[in-house]
Amino acid sequence: MTQGNNKERSPAIAAAVILLVVGFGFFLLPKAMIWLGEFSPWLAAGFGAICVLAFFLIFWLRARYQRNRGL
Known about the structure:
mainly alpha
């Protein structure tokens, strides 16, 4: 594998891993929110909002990292 080919695949692999991890987290999110909702509906809503915002935060941070490295 050449260096140029590796640079093209690396972002795609990283994005796929991130999407798989986040997808699994979102798969578990409803069960976690129902469990938290037994204590407080506000706690469940806050947890759900944080999880959704974290999804976008991951890609924003990754874009900043790549921009700073010149990728």
